Amino acid sequence: MQRDGLHVEGVALADVAARFGTPCYVYSRAALTAAYAAYRDTLQAHGLADRSLICYAVKANSNLAILNLFARLGAGFDIVSGGELARVRAAGGDADKIVFSGVGKSREEMRAVLEAGIRCFNVESASELDQLSEVAGTVGRRAPVSLRVNPDVDAKTHPYISTGLKSAKFGVAFNDAFDLYRRAAALPHIAVKGIDCHIGSQLLDPAPAAEAAGKVLALVDRLVADGIVLEHIDLGGGMGIQYHADEPAPAASVYLAPMLARLAGRHEKLVFEPGRSLVGNAGLLLTRVEVLKPGEEKHFAVVDAAMNDLMRPALYDAWHDITRVGADETATGTTMNYEIVGPVCESGDFLGHDRQLALNEGDLLAILSAGAYGMSMASNYNTRPRAAEVMIDGDAVHLIRRREEIPQLFALESTLP
Ligand code: LLP
């Protein structure tokens, strides 16, 4: 910690707060670049980089500056809506490096995405396949398709972000996939391109992803034997990150190794869809302590960020480390066990339980590892403007999203005549 407190790259967070206010998301360009490089270098080390495309999962953080940065690094994109398609294009992403995932694509989205000329639709049901063939027919194209198969593997993560079990709404049941491929191959406006699988998010154990890959490869080989040859294999995202100082996450090289080892010696191209692991540790949420409220049972620190800014603690009981931004010698408050909570009118509005901190009102706090599924899941609940977003690049500070203004929040509404 430097004399003027916590820094991101060359910039003091206190200066960011003074300039842009709080709550404010702060990202590091160097950390984003390093996370992408770690993924790419791991593919390189396994001799797979030349035939791999890293499609950043836009939902993790869809700010244009972040999308543009990944596009410049050569990434493709995994999108789940027409809205995300528009963002990727506005950020300069190539359409032919986009894969379109999601369990409920609308016909309108299918049309827009077909017209953009993307790389592949990851189809999740028999009905979707039929609808897509029909829509493709109306726009005079053949839709490039992978089936997202559900390998029935337990990802051992939070149930809300586990997607690869039979009981999940996602993907085509593994046992139905073979027949559905045959059907897809016979449809006039469908071009079978690949296979896709994504079993969940925030995975720390490499074994489930490797097991799922093994199942997918066995299916690919069965398809080939039946005359259905696939150009690519998409192994999804899911690699976990560190949220807790005491619980390190495996490095990309360690997490991906067992899965990548299974791909050696094959000829198919590969697609990966990492989201969280490219952005999560590269961002934090900067917030200010408004009120300290000591109580009989609990001591509360009410900060100016809330569940609408960072929903993960309220939604998944997720842990984010929280640290004081000020230099240690400015920590004049008594160290206490605090509940870090926001101003929203819900008891579920907490950002952290049981945090040992020495706080004064007015102190700045950094909620760490908030780069993924932070701003992208933010809402205007309680008519709270969404936070500003700032990107640090060395000593330079770039405002990449202005703080919303209150009149914008009801600008689309009207009263009755
Ligand atoms: N591909 C598909 C088809 C996905 O559904 C997801 C994430 C990804 C890729 C990216 O996965 P990642 O590499 O980020 O794990 N809001 C939750 C996470 C939801 C993940 C949804 N799907 C959270 O804050 O933990």
What is the element layout, followed by pairings?
Elements: E1 7-8, E2 11-12, H1 13-20, E3 24-28, H2 29-45, E4 52-57, H3 64-72, E5 76-79, H4 82-90, E6 98-100, H5 107-116, E7 120-123, H6 126-138, E8 143-150, E9 172-173, H7 174-186, E10 190-196, H8 206-225, E11 232-234, H9 252-261, E12 269-272, H10 276-279, E13 283-293, E14 299-303, H11 312-316, E15 322-324, E16 335-341, E17 350-358, E18 364-367, E19 388-393, E20 396-401, H12 406-409
Parallel strand pairs: 3-19, 4-5, 4-12, 5-6, 6-7, 7-8, 8-9, 8-10, 10-11, 11-12, 14-16
Antiparallel strand pairs: 1-2, 3-13, 13-14, 13-18, 15-18, 16-17, 19-20
Helix pairs in contact: 2-9, 5-6, 8-9
Bound molecules: ligand LLP.
Give an overview in words.
The protein is of the alpha/beta class. It has 2 domains: 7-13 and 17-23 and 281-409, Lyase, Ornithine Decarboxylase, Chain A, domain 1 (Beta Barrel); 29-275, TIM Barrel, CATH 3.20.20.10. 29% of the residues lie in helices and 24% in strands. The protein contains 12 helices and 20 strands. Strands 3, 13, 14, 15, 16, 17, 18, 19 and 20 form a 9-stranded mixed sheet that branches. An 8-stranded parallel β-barrel has the order 4-5-6-7-8-10-11-12, surrounded by 6 helices. Strands 1-2 form a two-stranded antiparallel sheet. It is globular. The termini are far apart. Ligand LLP is lined by residues 57, 60, 78, 101, 161, 198, 201-202, 236-239, 273-277, 312, 316, 373.
